[in-house]
Design a protein that fits this description.
Blueprint: H1 2-19, H2 47-57, H3 68-76, H4 79-85, H5 94-101, E1 115-118, E2 123-125, E3 134-143, E4 161-171, E5 179-186
Antiparallel strand pairs: 1-3, 2-3, 3-4, 4-5
Helix pairs in contact: 2-3
């Protein structure tokens, strides 16, 4: 009889003890981390802020979380831009975009670059009834120095190699009217317009 009474009491004590144990929350990727670069588009972000966030963030693509730099770029790019970056293999999903962006010639110079510098204020083209405003931001990318050329020969100088890119963005016509990246142009192969390609 005493055992029968003790059993329910024991179960209650055990249940209370389990409930009081600290619960470990599952690891979840948050949208915004205090003090970090923005991870998603917002109407409050201007083109130059987006370029700084996306391409500055690629200098350390695994901060503050693994592949955070590639994830940020995924959400700030238009669908067409994602296709161009990943050779049409990573536009639909973040996992495929991350996989193919790591090896993309359009993004590789920014990844772990020595430094990135905005050339000047963005060039803005007003919107029309059929499209939103467009912006072009010139960016100098200083590649971390290596000791050898791609051919294998030793370099005479260890100064960082400088490349110039033109980042094109367009604002959505409909709310929330975010600015999104439409093109990443290496000016060595694209054009010699307002942002130029003369680094001398």
């Amino acid at each position: 009889m005493a055992y029968a009474r003790a059993r329910p009491v024991g179960m209650i004590v055990l249940a209370v003890a389990v409930a009081l144990q600290p619960v470990r929350r599952p690891h979840m990727r948050t949208r915004v981390i205090r003090g970090a670069l923005p991870m998603r588009p917002s109407p409050d972000l201007e083109p130059i802020e987006i370029v700084n966030a996306c391409f500055g963030g690629l200098q350390q693509p695994d901060e503050p979380l693994p592949d955070a730099g590639y994830e940020r770029l995924f959400y700030f790019c238009t669908y067409t831009c994602r296709k161009a970056i990943t050779a049409r293999m990573g536009a639909d999903s973040l996992a495929n975009f991350t996989k193919h962006t790591e090896l993309s010639p359009a993004v590789q110079p920014f990844t772990r670059a020595a430094s990135i510098r905005i050339v000047e204020e963005p060039t803005i083209i007003a919107g029309t009834p059929t499209r939103g405003p467009m912006a072009t931001v010139g960016v100098d990318v200083f590649i971390a120095p290596s000791f050898r050329h791609a051919s294998g020969y030793e370099k005479e100088s260890d100064a960082p190699e400088a490349l110039r890119f033109a980042i094109r963005l367009q604002q959505e016509r409909r709310p929330p009217k975010n600015w999104l990246i439409t093109e990443i142009l290496d000016t060595r192969y694209a054009f010699a317009g307002d942002t130029g390609n003369d680094l001398q």
